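@channel anyone free to eyeball this complex?
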Amino acid sequence: MVITQAIEDYLKTIYLLGQGGEVATSAIALKLKVSPPSVTGMVKKLAEMKLLRYTRYQGVELTPAGEKIALEVVRHHRLLELYLQEALGYPWDKVHEEAEKLEHVISEEFEDRIAEALGWPETDPHGHPIPTKDGVLPAVAVRELLAVETGQSATVRQVSDGDPGMLRYLASLGFFPGATVQVLEKAPFEGPLRVRVGEAEHAVGRELARHVLVSAATPAEV
Amino acid sequence: MVITQAIEDYLKTIYLLGQGGEVATSAIALKLKVSPPSVTGMVKKLAEMKLLRYTRYQGVELTPAGEKIALEVVRHHRLLELYLQEALGYPWDKVHEEAEKLEHVISEEFEDRIAEALGWPETDPHGHPIPTKDGVLPAVAVRELLAVETGQSATVRQVSDGDPGMLRYLASLGFFPGATVQVLEKAPFEGPLRVRVGEAEHAVGRELARHVLVSAATPAEV
DNA sequence: CTAATTTCTTAGGCCAGACTAAGTTCTTTT
DNA sequence: AAAAGAACTTAGTCTGGCCTAAGAAATTAG
Ligand SMILES: [Mn+2]
Ligand SMILES: [Mn+2]
Ligand SMILES: [Mn+2]
Ligand SMILES: [Mn+2]
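replying in thread with the prediction:
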């Protein structure tokens, strides 16, 4: 029962889509950019391997064994992203792609050494929590910026890391984890939000505001 | 015509075995730990792709296109080895294995950034020259320690990096690139060499003495 | 110079992981 | 409650990269 790169990618994807629930095969197919039949096939195999539970037409849920592997890959990914930024000077819109390939090949030794070099960090460049070595993902209470009421302030916690263009745009607006934002206005008819970030004011679309996760204002830490 | 990881390994292996000559399929099979028929099959495909020339029963020789890819992989490998040692504190007997996996997945950007971090180095931890970005492997004039005449001194230039145990032993004897060694005696009947390294004297077997490459004494540089 | 041995290739197959085309089953609509 | 539509699975294929068994060519030995 050998854990291939493909298997790691399936488990990671299911984990990130699922977060404690059933995941539809089509969702997996979409994320991994493979056809739905490919997912059905792989998922049957992973069920055989006891890495997930699968009920036909019902979707899929990771077992503890499957989740353990998923979390290891996620830890690799997020540590690598941070290492690329901190140690090699990558811009934050390029770390994801590189980490996506490296996450499958680094050894435990490599993982430990970069974790140490980074001072055992807790979040990646986009604010996502890094699972601990024993497979625990720290829970964080966040909601979408879109959900913040008009007039309220909040602290940016996490941003989506999949789209480099979006990341560059978010950076240009000052949407970094830790930044304080205030929602000044929400235009009606699915219109944009007017927000203040530091000194500046920006109009941001609702789609974008769904990709920025925030917590209550006034960060507890620096 | 996509260059897979397997193809990269074949080309690299052929390059390192060949160094300007025909390479037997069995030699490739031995090095890559695959069966001879697997090599024949792959080699036919690589010939199709114009990455090497293949004549049945005669062996194989890289084309310029094939050599270019091989040198890129070798550059990745050797830069990675040095980076693992210098930046992450790996001992020199562990860098090879890790680099063996990473060499296939890093981007040009990663390559450039570690090269820069290392100050555009010219040799890896074992003394092997690092091919330049435009695909030139600096030639070095070396011979086996075994070939040094009794009484003569020489400077260690390169050591084999495949066997971690051997590397640890070589380190314990002081056989690092740059070290000065003097051959005091060669025991007859394929016996060991008595050599001086710094203050210490050691008896080393002929097999080991074949894995240490040296140049004329008195290093030109420090 | 033939015979034995070694080296290499062909033949045939397997497995992982993807695909398209053609059903099923579930869900939504009327 | 039936029909239409969406979601999912089955069936059948393909490609890459490996394998073993058997045969052909090259090399070495007698
Ligand atoms: Mn990422
Ligand atoms: Mn991230
Ligand atoms: Mn090496
Ligand atoms: Mn080396």
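from a first look: The longest strand of chain B covers residues 153-159.
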